[in-house]
């Protein structure tokens, strides 16, 4: 009886040891770390997409701008009072260019980014600046942004994001 009990305890311990992998179920996911070179390359690609984003905003090109967004995008923009899907994401751009006597421009301040597999999360501030025909600043607003970009083949798309006014100088 003691031999049978010892064998049962031994088998139970062996099963328990083999079933308790470090990290549980998540350890089955390939978590091979990306090299720092690849991560930096991905982060730079996503940052280039942010620069394209703002070039399109400055050029009032809402058609090309909407192509940067995944069809299932959902985010929390600085305009309105709730979340938005892709259908409303470009609604704020024409307002920037509403006054023909004012020129809209911007300045970006890259804060941080994080590459995880084929996804990059980017954090930055953006000055939105309106000047008159003489280049005199009429008003300036600084917003803070975060966008989550995913790479599909050679194409980057925004999956989600959030923006908020950081400072406003009327």
Spatial extent as radius of gyration: 25 Å
Secondary-structure-derived class:
alpha+beta
What is the terminal-to-terminal distance?
87 Å
The biggest beta sheet, please?
6 strands, mixed
What do these coordinates show?
The protein has 170 residues and is α+β, with helices and mostly antiparallel strands. It has one domain: Roll (Nuclear Transport Factor 2, Chain: A). Helices cover 29% and strands 40% of the residues. The chain has 4 helices and 6 strands; from the N terminus they run H-H-H-E-E-H-E-E-E-E. It has helices at residues 2-19, 36-58, 62-66, 93-96, and strands at residues 69-76, 84-85, 103-116, 119-131, 137-152, 155-169. Strands 2-1-6-5-4-3 form a 6-stranded mixed sheet, with helices on one face. A hairpin with a 2-residue loop joins strand 5 (137-152) and strand 6 (155-169).
Key phrases:
alpha+beta; Nuclear Transport Factor 2, Chain: A; 170 residues
Summarize the structure.
The protein has helices at residues 2-19, 36-58, 62-66, 93-96, and strands at residues 69-76, 84-85, 103-116, 119-131, 137-152, 155-169.
Task: Give the SSE layout.
Elements: H1 2-19, H2 36-58, H3 62-66, E1 69-76, E2 84-85, H4 93-96, E3 103-116, E4 119-131, E5 137-152, E6 155-169
């Amino acid at each position: 009886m003691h031999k049978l009990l010892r064998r049962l305890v031994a088998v139970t311990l062996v099963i328990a040891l083999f079933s308790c992998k470090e990290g549980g179920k998540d350890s089955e996911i390939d978590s091979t770390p990306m090299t720092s070179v690849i991560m930096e390359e991905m982060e730079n690609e996503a940052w280039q997409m942010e620069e394209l984003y703002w070039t399109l905003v400055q050029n009032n090109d809402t058609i090309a701008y909407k192509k940067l967004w995944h069809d299932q995008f959902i985010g929390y923009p600085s305009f309105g009072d709730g979340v938005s899907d892709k259908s409303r994401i470009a609604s704020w751009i024409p307002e920037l260019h509403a006054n023909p006597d004012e020129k809209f421009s911007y300045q970006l301040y890259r804060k941080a980014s994080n590459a995880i597999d084929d996804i990059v999360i980017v954090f930055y501030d953006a000055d939105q600046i309106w000047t008159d025909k003489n280049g005199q600043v009429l008003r300036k607003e600084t917003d803070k942004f975060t966008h989550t970009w995913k790479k599909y083949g050679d194409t980057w798309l925004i999956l989600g994001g959030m923006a908020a006014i950081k400072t406003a100088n009327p």
